[in-house]
Amino acid sequence: MAEEPTEFWSGYAMDPVEIALPAGSGFTLRAYRTSDAVTPTDVSEREPEENPFARKPDEPLEDEDLPDFDEDELTRQALGEDSDDADKAAGKGDTSVDLEPVTDEDSADDAEDAAETEEEPAADAEEVPLFLSHKGKVLIFKSTEGLLDFVKSDAPHDLRQLAEWDEFAEAVTADEIEPAEDDAYELDLVVENLRGGHDAWDAPLLLSAGEVARDLAYALRLETVLTMLSPGSPLDDLDEALRAASAGGIGGFMAKRRIRKIGAQQASLGWRTVIGKISSAVDWRD
Questions:
Q1: CB count, 10 Å around CB of 193?
Q2: Which pTM does this prediction carry?
Q3: pLDDT tens-digit profile of 67-88?
Q4: Which secondary structure element, helix H or strand E, spans residue 140, and what is its range?
């Protein structure tokens, strides 16, 4: 296992990764590119996901599902002002209207402001993961030789859209396919580790599992997994607490107390679902 990516892989902005799942372990490739430079994998032939966390379109909202709120209070909170100021902002104070004539200078200023708005550059595209995948499934090879043979073949896959793919496929050799230590993920150990209780939880194991699970969920368009690992979810809270605890200091001490409050059974059941969804989107190859 290599400690760092080699110069060869850095030159193509791509990496070999090793992923261990309950069904076995194998190798694939991963790259990161801006979202506007790649086409997502085609999942049109994959059976629709059943997301237990999503409300069905035809399921009506019950009255008790709708939150009660006070519009005046929300206005005051949003403005950070007292009630008199909020009432004025909401139009409940002075109802008189002062009209001023619109001059040519005002119109010119408005046109200039509109032009500046149109000239503002669009937000930068985010960097997204892309795997050696096809039709919504990641291709994982049980040997580096099998991976190499596939790379050098004419078989279709999602990495073929990369501009440097043909050059890479011609240059890569079996000796180069050696994942770095940080690119080896042991998803097969996660559930068992969580079942061992808080004292047994392995932060590096769980944090690296979260990293690759998010990457796979995005690249393979696994909506259920994305939901389960989204910011604010219980599994994401576990990640944040483990990361803070690993950092040490006062924050680490408080994070350890937070970890103690996380249910081991809930965490292990959640991760079992995540790994099951990912496993169902794997195409094992020899």
A1: 18
A2: 0.73
A3: 444 545 544 554 554 545 545 4
A4: strand 137-141
